[in-house]
Amino acid sequence: MRRQRRGLRALALFVLAPYVGEFVLGNQPITALLELPLLATMYGGGAVLVREVGRRTRSGWPVMVLLAVAYALVEEGLVDQMLFNPAYLGLTSFADQAAVPGMGISARLTVDSVALHATGSTCVPIALVEAFDRGAPRPWLGRRGLVAVAVVFVAGSAGLAVLQAVDLRFVGSPAQFAVTAAAVAGLIALAVRRARQVVDDRRGPAGAVPRPRTVLLAAFGVTTGFWLLDLFLVPVAGAWVGVCCGAAVLAGGAVLLSRASRRAGWGSQHRLAAACGALPTYLWLAPVNTAQLGIPPALGAAGNVVFGASAVLLAVAAWRADAHRRPVEARV
Asked: Where are the transmembrane segments (predicted)?
């Protein structure tokens, strides 16, 4: 029975990752729901692998965040190739998108992808599903299950990469793939190094742990601040200014979260609060995305309402479930 429940939680994450990362965020119309299983092979497979590695190594969120960033680069660099292909977003060039000289890579899209998919497609779904898991965080899958998910992830990502290349008639240069692959490998190496370290997660700065409500508001402020800079500062000050300011906001938020999470008293409710704080940002960002993607207004509005309402209901259910969890000491 316990094994079945763990398997169901892994399946829930497998489905929730693409649901949040594509539909709640307004990147897909409601009529594209039939594509959810296909998208889940990459989104869901990646999220489950990130979560399982973090829990198997007992290193938790520090490793999961690093792997989530690596996943974001795999998705938008090696699979979708959005970071290399201006036509992906209907652009003729990356000239006004903070192009990296000599590489044909957009720094703006790279930072945006990390902000969007490392959080919305990976970390937020993980935190939401874990809220329903009583007791200390533990792996949900055995070795066979983990291997099966890895195979699905690789096969699904490869299939989606081929479909994108054929549909857009674009393949990046060897140098672009090499740089992206090197960045992914570097992040994985950092995650492995962090997982091997014996770290006292409570050996942090002195001070009281913030209230969950404070964490929720801070997460909303950081994520909303980042996207407001991207939407309104870039057109006025230029892409590179927007990229630097946005990256500074993300880095500052990450530092504050890291320091707070190492204080005694930090627990599952705080982690869930961070995820729930990011969700409202995705809800107001969704209509912007649907409009930019040219989705018909009525269709876009219907999707935004349905997906947004379901996300709110899930967050409320997760909050209530977490409130009834047994008090445990869990590694962050």
From this structure: 36-54, 145-163, 175-193, 214-233, 239-260, 272-295, 301-321
